[in-house]
């Protein structure tokens, strides 16, 4: 029998507000343990929560970016369960009346028609504390860091529309990009500001029934989500073929062993309305202001870059993936005469250089004006492409003009015909057999001789002029 997967995702996204959801403690869980805490986020008896307006504004903006309908009234509930990272015994969440409903994303999965994947709802909730397991001492202990307790989250709950691991990963990439565009969250899976749970079941191909699902929890990599979903489909298929029942429970993904492992039985505590936090009321006029303030989303920007600046669709997609990079490019494209050349340099040179330093373009010294100045040096043949790449890396860490870096480090291109002819003659004299091979009809030798000549010129030669001289000498 052929089976198909039915997959739904629950994505937890931490909002990057200055303070926590219900108190004025800094929203910065990365500091020393238990330093950003107060009676409210320690959940001490008698301490009352006070909802942050900034959190609501950022959450609404993120929901709008995911094409959701904001509810005019939403409210918090007490999601009752006990775990060591939640010692008060309940989490403030929005079970009955979430902030937003009925969103969707049109996801490009490589087919001719994008997949329309629906979002059931998005709700606000407080994050829990963080458990730190110390197993090195004589007696293993678990410690609790409350810095993360009360950090504001939105939880995006999809409809069970996803059918493959690739669709799940594509959905997460697009969701992450759109939320980053709003500035509501960094959506960093590596740093924990975005975490993913996947609910997976399988059914016979063509069936419309929903079978028992299995949850894979707390994945911190998009690739891990794809791998975990793929493994769980295989595991459940094997169970079905052997006649073993699929049991409702929660599992964890082990990226080293590439398997899911049982964690616990699936349970759901009661959710009762919380009396301490007033309902959130959103009026239409305020909501209209938030919609008008939304930035241009990446898919629209990609299509406009194709139309306005002549980029190929894949180039436009790579440039528009991050908002600050897209705005960096567009500032250049409006003033530089070769926007596609600028895009190529950004994609092939700037992005890898930023990745090596684990930074984004807004965190370095490079400005659109300085980048254009570097490209102009290449256009006027003051430096060659190899030198420009080296200069670009240095421009990330200094505000010196590119001309100063070129002169300081001797990157200026050699275009002196006499000097280059001497270099070519030396190379040809040193490789007589290769010269004979070329003249006998082997054109591949040209690349080798060109490389030797550029090396002899210490990479500073004008490559176009060098090749012209080399070709002329070999033809004599």
Which SSEs are present, and which pair or pack?
Blueprint: E1 3-14, H1 53-65, E2 69-70, E3 73-80, E4 90-97, E5 100-107, E6 115-126, E7 130-134, E8 141-145, E9 152-158, H2 165-182, E10 194-204, E11 214-219, H3 222-242, E12 249-254, E13 259-265, E14 271-273, E15 280-281, H4 284-292, H5 298-309, H6 313-319, H7 323-333, H8 339-356, H9 368-379, H10 385-395, H11 402-408, H12 417-430, H13 432-439, H14 445-456, H15 463-475
Parallel strand pairs: 11-12
Antiparallel strand pairs: 1-9, 1-10, 2-5, 3-4, 3-14, 3-15, 5-6, 6-9, 7-8, 10-11, 12-13
Tell me what you see in this structure.
The chain is of the alpha+beta class. The protein contains 15 helices and 15 strands. Helix 5 (298-309) crosses helix 6 (313-319), helix 12 packs across helix 14 and helix 12 (417-430) packs across helix 15 (463-475). The radius of gyration is 29 Å and the shape is elongated.
Q: Please identify the structural class as seen in this structure.
A: alpha+beta
Helix content bin: 25-40%
Based on DSSP secondary structure assignment, what is the total number of beta strands?
A: 15
Topology order in helix (H) and strand (E) letters? EHEEEEEEEEHEEHEEEEHHHHHHHHHHHH
- Could you give the distance between the termini? 72 Å
Strand content: 15-25%
What number is the mean pLDDT? 92
